[in-house]
Amino acid sequence: xxxxxxxxxxxxxxxxxxxxxxxxxxxxxxxxxxxxxxxxxxxxxxxxxxxxxxxxxxxxxxxxxxxxxxxxxxxxxxxxxxxxxxxxxxxxxxxxxxxxxxxxxxxx
Length: 108
Prior knowledge:
Radius of gyration: 16 Å
CATH superfamily: ATPase, nucleotide binding domain
């Protein structure tokens, strides 16, 4: 946001600007995908998960995120077994619902 002189935008807003051809959005998106791919590969090396679930606002971006993320993982992977990438079925609500259920379980 600071680099482009705009306000701090969420994933969906950046994805919309990306689809409109905004070059600043392209740079932000590419960097986010690169960093996320590095994080997933680190997790894969340590924990060897069979599946990685992408949730929150990022999940709402759909293929705009998942396709380049899968490509980045394949390009960066060396010896890692790549986990299956899926979006959270509850999308952006997963964290809120999980917190609510945890609170429900903790209240006597």
